[in-house]
Amino acid sequence: MSKIEFSLDSLPDTLGMAVDAVAKKFKQVGIDGARLDARLIVTHGLGVEPQKVLTHPELSIAPEDCQKIIEMAHRRIQREPMSHILGEREFWSMDFKVTADTLTPRPDTETLVDVVLSKVAKLPTDSKLGILDLGTGTGCILLTLLSEIPNANGIGVDISEAALSVAHANASSLGLLGRAAFSQGHWGDGLEACFDIVVSNPPYIPAQDIHTLSAEVSKYEPRSALDGGEDGLDAYCDIAADLKRLLKPGGFACFEVGIGQAEDVSKILSDSGFTKNEIHSDLSGIERVVLVNATI
Ligand SMILES: C[S@@+](CC[C@H](N)C(=O)[O-])C[C@H]1O[C@@H](n2cnc3c(N)ncnc32)[C@H](O)[C@@H]1O
Questions:
Q1: Has residue 122 got a pLDDT over 80?
Q2: In the Cβ-directed half-sphere of 180, how many Cα atoms lie within 13 Å?
């Protein structure tokens, strides 16, 4: 078998060989999932489906596409997340635009969506529901809920204007703009309406732990999406203080929490008058979601 050389200024000019070469380089620099990332980058650069690597490895790559692929591979070697390089991430089987201004949607967050949908399934099917998503980022939670609950509409709030424009673009590409609105602000400040469902996946990493996260997260994801203050719980305290005003009687709120935070968040919410709390775990058994019910 011939030895494939790959430096950042050259790349073999067929699909299969280019994937091998990029994967080899990624392995050398210690990137987890090197082959998958290589396959996605090369096929994205070439504008073909990832499975073409298996069905048509002989496809040739034009010099300008080679250059694009080399640039993307170089970004990955610098540990830029795949979601930033490809500009999107799948969540709940839908594609969400992602930029450096938004947290990349995580599979963990699908647990929150699942908990909300199970609760909504017990409501009368004709109920019109208003949803508030605090810290909406890409809009992945709000837009997924709207796609699954046809009689709902909702507002996504974020402190970041740049994140809101990504959420707006996602609402548009998913055909949900008619039922979604976005507003810049600090959590629920200034919102006059109240809602049947409040959801939030706020920043919850203790500030001093951020540097211990992978470079993909600590160097590239927005600090405002990660930093939960000294103990990681600042946002929950802020939101809890306003939750009574934001929730309709009989409504409920659902929060994603970090590992080991569920009891603390539940206590913060109990101290704000929400005593009927539930903690739900994700598929790995990690306590991931705190749900509170407003009194009727
Ligand atoms: C952990 S990210 C969650 C993003 C998205 N909801 C998700 O689950 O992928 C937290 C989001 O909260 C936003 N945020 C941070 N501080 C905020 C504040 N004071 N008011 C509103 N949003 C805030 C950040 O900009 C970020 O988009």
A1: yes
A2: 30
Ligand 1 centroid–CA 157 distance in Å is 8
The overall average pLDDT reported for the chain is 95
Decide: 206 and 231 in contact? Cβ < 8 Å: yes
**Same domain, yes or no: 171 and 46:** no
User: What CATH number should be reported for the domain holding residue 30?
Assistant: 1.10.8
The answer to whether 78 touches 93, Cβ cutoff 8 Å, is no
Identify whether the C-beta of residue 131 lies closer than 8 Å to the C-beta of residue 193.
no
Q: How confident is the model at residue 5 (pLDDT cuts 50, 70, 90)?
A: low
Distance 27 CA to ligand 1 centre (A): 33
- For residue 5, being part of any structural domain is answered with no
245 lines ligand 1 (CB under 6 A): no
- Does position 129 have pLDDT exceeding 60, yes or no? yes
**For residues 195 and 252, is the Cβ–Cβ distance under 8 A?**
no
